[in-house]
């Protein structure tokens, strides 16, 4: 009899089978997709779970309020730190059970190193001019091209006549007139290029003063000599000063943690515990210490020098030839002369930096002993320390605040044309102060008059290293590795990104700016003891807060634990206990960086003085504990998504089962009239439903397998085998309720249409809309059936959107979270698509049954003159009304459930509910397409005759 029913009601059986098959296929694919998405998410988290170090130890008080409020770790702190951790505390950290590596970093400060830049002008001289003046106007370009900082001009006076310059390096030269003399063709001599007078302390200026940084060079024809007896040349020399941030590390722990030994590109690595070597100059009575240093083989500074070479008007020649005792007024006057640009040149920092590294690595072969630039680079006679960024909280980020300070702290500015030994970038906006100058103290050596005194600390560049080869950890789990790397910062808003033209703002030579360069020079902890020796360096100004922290020279300690550390609760508890022991033993600030990931924090950077506008920058801080949040969110979403899909599929099948049973109510009533008991009716209906469920389960599983392979989804055989009996059980449960009601004892109640008695007594409607609403009230069961299908879909869609957006909200904001979110989007959209398909099918099925049951009524309307347009309007109005009822109720239920999941009703959830409601009404409108097509095929005469 079951087979007979399939043949007799093939269309309805096929619809029922299709609905269950679609539900089985959808559930199989979506649960597989959810599992695959979870595996991908957890796999990504596990692959990026462990950063370069597991625990970061900093001095007490080094944590900003923003770090505490948002569970963050600030990057770029090293340059502004003055120790705070003692050597004993460092060793205590290493002695904690479970600690494998305790790698310290001790910040020393900035060294200033200068390299000459020779600008050859011989090819630009006018061969027809007897005398001429060229001007080289340098500008420093930085801040991603936003800042253009002018420097002092350099002038070249060139004559075809011979220039004789008295020797300045011979005994008794101090009492002679050292001004150069130009010898004319007639033998007449005239003074040119006046010299520099003696400079007194009162003449010291800001080292970025443009006049002080300018120079005047004279060159003549054949036979011309300079003050050292060398032939003159048509060239000028500029100075490129590079601040070197210096830090001390422990060679063994740094090699184990960051692989620094494997990043050495030239020379050698530090020896374990390498200390300064003692050396002595022949004519100096005391020895000096030589600190081993490793230098980076490339600059990590945004700096470019642009040169505008100009030919000045003839009046400039007359200025140079005037006799004067001091060239300061002359250089100032030349600055006001007009000039025509003849050539532009660009010098990038790579070449000067490479020259400087070469001079330090091979001082004997770089220049002769009289080269002041090479000899200056070898001695550590002074260095500077700089404070942290002045900032205040602003919204969810911070605002850097501009400060002013006396730039004479660099103490190299004067009016003698000898300035330029500091970067011109120092003249730009500062957000750091607390600058201390630390000069070598040789007073203990009791140097007498006539004895030679030298700094007692020198540098020995034993090698270079490539920062790109240091083990920094994965990009998704990067933690502050300021010792080697400063990635730069992008704009945090559209205006800043547009100003930067898509580039990043990188550190430059302004050590008082927002971004600090990583240390370009490293030494050993054992060697740094010479710098922190109480008799080593004297600090100016003599404020205690600016002095070297000799008692606690270590700025931070990066800790890596022994053994494997996983995502499980036991591993995380082990890490927490070790961090707690470190804090208890040392009293220091301890942060667990295991499972962290970079996150952007907006920082407002004030405008510069040379073109850079105010910028809001996305500074890459570190969010702690992201990995655990990701895994929990992925697990929660996987469970909820699977449960939601199961509910949607089950309710879709229930809807189809109820519709199928209601379509057979007349047949079931007749069987009851001829003596069939409720048990026989229930057995018949259960057999039919089980057969349909079995067939649909097999069909759905067969379809799901190739689709899963095509989409790369993970399906287990156990899951597939359980799908078939689950489909049978689902069909029985879905059809049990309708079958029980259909098999009621009273046959008349089964055959009688489900019409509300109250609705039957309503006044006759006068319009199509009123008739449609009356029909909905007249058959409340049918109306509830249609509204329920949309109620299910809209509630499911609202919850699905809430799960999706709540999951993303829990993990986005970090690089690791963004990567996981991108992986989860496919399954999210697939779930939405299947939900919509099931909703359309459910509504279409209800409307199909609706028209089938009311076919005689609709035929009567056609017979009395109703047009197809009017009938279409009637059916569409009923569908939209059902859609509105189901949509509003579904959106309300979905919003309530989503609020529990998200922790409250948010604006985003209201938008999700509104979108789901709109989608439900649109689905109802689309679902009437097939039923409307049926209206045109109704056999009006046959239906009226049967009625």
From TrEMBL:
Transmembrane segments: 639-661, 681-711, 717-735, 784-807, 827-849, 879-902, 908-935
Biased composition (Polar residues): 203-218
Residue intervals of the ABC3 transporter permease C-terminal domain: 640-746, 830-939
Localization annotation: Cell membrane
Membrane topology: Multi-pass membrane protein
Top-rank taxon: Bacteria
Name of the featured protein: ABC3 transporter permease C-terminal domain-containing protein
